[in-house]
Amino acid sequence: MGWFSQNLTLIFQFLPGFITASIFYTLTAHPKMTEFERVVQALIFTVLLKALLLPLQSMFLLLGRYVTLGKWTPDVELVWMIVLAIPLGLVFAWFANTDKGHHWARSYGLTSRTSYPSEWYAAFIRDGQRWIILHMKEGRRLYGWPEEWPDQADKGHFVIDQPEWVMDDGSRIPIYQTNRFLIPVNEVERVEFLAFLPEWQVSEEAAKIAQAPLIDLHRSQKNGSKATESGPETADRPADPGNHGSASRTVLEKRLILQRTSDRREAPGITGPTPA
Prior knowledge:
SH3 type barrels, 6-stranded antiparallel β-sheet
């Protein structure tokens, strides 16, 4: 209590800077700094607020020659610094979220960095209004619209709207009974941002022809891994006619589902065709 009472004046002097910093971290995805760094940041914001207060103080003192406004005291100064701390925090948050300041600096060759906290966050800010495919660590792929995504690559969740499982041949199976998928980011190996059809440099048929070798390679690798797991005896054993009929029915059911869902859905709030 003795330390607090002795440093109460110093705490109140830094209070406007802490208010600006708290507004900044509340409205941006930047991770909070250590206690020492936050104190230094509050000191910097306090100095900026002092500089902004000088013309305001001069204006009030000038008006005081003609109109009685009261005395300019340290308490009045503190109140006005707190008032200025709010718009200052909003301005810094706006620059951090829009990359405007760094964009200007990059145009003059002053820096190559952005105002975003990481490359992960920058990718979603720039390409978040797209369909994505989440590549799971266990090998599955999930297609959908990213309604929400984590600010950091090591913690948080994806909220995927209109989810569909992506098959080995590139076809998609809708999940009609599911509205949204909540996927932990630590279960995702990589994220694929899909281009809309007007952005393609080739036709849809040419893209399918170009991707055919990759699909065949993926199938052969998957079939080879299954044969290795089942053993040489199982791999050389002829297929069971009953199982073959069941597999044929499964393929037929998948084709019927794909035929019913051949009309691609539009992105929420976005007009234009859905990427293949």
